[in-house]
Amino acid sequence: MEGKRGWGFYVLGAVFALFVLFLYGPIVTIGILSFQGPEGGLTFPMRGWSTHWFFDLFEQQAVGDFWGAFYRSVTLGLMVMVTTVVVSVMAGLAFRRRFFGASWLFYLTVASLIIPSILVSLGVGLMFNIAGIDVHWSTSGFGSQLTWTLPFGLLIMFAVFNRFDKSYEEAARDLGASPWQTVRHVVLPIIGPSLIGVALFGFTLSYDEFARTLLTAGSYNTLPLEIFGMTTNVTTPVLYALGTMTTVFSFLIIGGALGGVALMRRRRSRAPSDAGRGMV
């Protein structure tokens, strides 16, 4: 009886399959259309198969600046990633102890997640104009995106440190480690996989962000803004080829992060056995 599957199992399976199709169907469709032949258009039916539009990406475009926008998005994503990791770890360590105004500071930080993104973009742009600072993707764009990534990084660090066993730190201090040595050699290696997750979260949120960058990027577009602007001008599958390449790039970043986590866990699992052999 336990081996039999009721109708509910197949209903849930069908619902899940429809959800996956809804989630990845547009990505697959764009990927297929990007392999249109030289005479291909933006819709089905396909007019031959080729990689013509991928090679066309590397040529001078009449409309749009693909590689400049890609460079700016990657650079901005790395800036946001590093800042998010550093600030999130420091904030997570700080919030382990109660201090005056901790609750209000937490609520103010998380509140940026529920404020409409376009209003955040408008507000940051106005602040930079009032301060006399040029609106630019590396300054105002950087600040507006941090209002999106930092709350997520902080929430992840809260969850990590709530499960952190403080006995490891106590043991390190008993052995004479300084506070910095305890953080560097004990705390950071233990929470290392979580830091990779925060870094991945920060980079991908920045790389894909549109609304909070719309009014803060200045005269130079990031890749999402460039793609949006080109949808009204580009009438060839080169736009789909760009979407396919950026999607592959995103999956490579995710795969690299998962590989880093797996490597850290493998090294951690080998550490006790290596220590035991050293004692023998």
TrEMBL record:
<keyword id="KW-0812">Transmembrane</keyword>
<keyword id="KW-0472">Membrane</keyword>
<feature type="transmembrane region" description="Helical">
    <location>
        <begin position="104"/>
        <end position="128"/>
    </location>
</feature>
<feature type="domain" description="ABC transmembrane type-1">
    <location>
        <begin position="70"/>
        <end position="257"/>
    </location>
</feature>
<dbReference type="GO" id="GO:0055085">
    <property type="term" value="P:transmembrane transport"/>
</dbReference>
<feature type="transmembrane region" description="Helical">
    <location>
        <begin position="238"/>
        <end position="263"/>
    </location>
</feature>
<keyword id="KW-0813">Transport</keyword>
<dbReference type="Pfam" id="PF00528">
    <property type="entry name" value="BPD_transp_1"/>
</dbReference>
<dbReference type="InterPro" id="IPR051789">
    <property type="entry name" value="Bact_Polyamine_Transport"/>
</dbReference>
<keyword id="KW-1133">Transmembrane helix</keyword>
<protein>
    <submittedName>
        <fullName>Putative spermidine/putrescine transport system permease protein</fullName>
    </submittedName>
</protein>
<feature type="transmembrane region" description="Helical">
    <location>
        <begin position="148"/>
        <end position="165"/>
    </location>
</feature>
<dbReference type="InterPro" id="IPR000515">
    <property type="entry name" value="MetI-like"/>
</dbReference>
<dbReference type="InterPro" id="IPR035906">
    <property type="entry name" value="MetI-like_sf"/>
</dbReference>
<feature type="transmembrane region" description="Helical">
    <location>
        <begin position="186"/>
        <end position="207"/>
    </location>
</feature>
<feature type="transmembrane region" description="Helical">
    <location>
        <begin position="74"/>
        <end position="95"/>
    </location>
</feature>
<comment type="similarity">
    <text>Belongs to the binding-protein-dependent transport system permease family. CysTW subfamily.</text>
</comment>
<keyword id="KW-1003">Cell membrane</keyword>
<dbReference type="GO" id="GO:0005886">
    <property type="term" value="C:plasma membrane"/>
</dbReference>
<feature type="transmembrane region" description="Helical">
    <location>
        <begin position="7"/>
        <end position="35"/>
    </location>
</feature>
